[in-house]
Structure to design on (215 residues):
């Protein structure tokens, strides 16, 4: 296990900072350099402290993983996990997901799998506009997926799952449910986030959605 000291060199090895970097070309070039050697790529939107995506990268060295995270504190935790495990097939982008997708990913890269794990449900009506999951977001995700790609979304919020996510999926023409039911509470082989562990321990149901790309 590598000695952990998150100095600037280590952060630069794993972290691309869209919030504080005015040179888009730098991030574009870094992504091209890092992703171009891999045929299979996966993306996690809102990777948090990195438990989920770091474990994926650690167990699938033939694939490249990209995580997008809005919180610098969480992004640094993800970097810590990757550095301690000497992972080479992972980049964390510190930035707002929609902006990162628009600027650096759409039209440039295609992903075999995209994960949206436990997005903030913003339960208050006045905050509903802050939810990342909506019809426009699905439209944005669609061209990022390969033709046989899969988009996974997971939540523990009953209202978010049943009244928002499930309703939007039913109305969408861009995605097709690949499960035998609208959602499941367990998905075999799917990784576990730290947040999921906490929520299961206090009795929350977990809702897994899995959709393929309609072409």
């Amino acid at each position: 296990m590598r000695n952990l000291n998150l100095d600037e060199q280590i952060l630069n090895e794993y972290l691309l900072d869209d919030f504080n970097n005015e040179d888009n070309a730098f991030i574009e070039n870094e992504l091209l350099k890092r992703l171009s050697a891999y045929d299979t790529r996966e993306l996690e939107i809102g990777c948090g402290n990195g438990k989920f995506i770091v474990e994926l990268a650690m167990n699938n060295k033939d694939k490249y993983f990209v995580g997008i995270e809005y919180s610098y504190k969480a992004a640094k935790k993800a970097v810590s996990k990757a550095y301690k495990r000497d992972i080479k097939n992972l980049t964390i982008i510190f930035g707002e997901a929609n902006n990162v997708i628009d600027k650096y990913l759409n039209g440039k890269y295609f992903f075999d799998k995209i994960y949206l794990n436990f997005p903030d449900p913003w339960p208050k009506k006045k905050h509903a506009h802050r939810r990342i999951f909506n019809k426009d977001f699905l439209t944005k995700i669609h061209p990022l997926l390969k033709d046989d790609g899969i988009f996974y979304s997971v939540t523990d919020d009953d209202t978010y799952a049943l009244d928002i996510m499930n309703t939007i999926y039913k109305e969408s023409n861009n995605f097709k449910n690949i499960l035998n039911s609208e959602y499941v509470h367990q998905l075999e082989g799917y990784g576990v986030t730290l947040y999921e562990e906490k929520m299961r321990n206090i009795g929350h149901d977990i809702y897994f959605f899995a959709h393929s790309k309609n072409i």
About this structure: The longest strand covers residues 145-155.
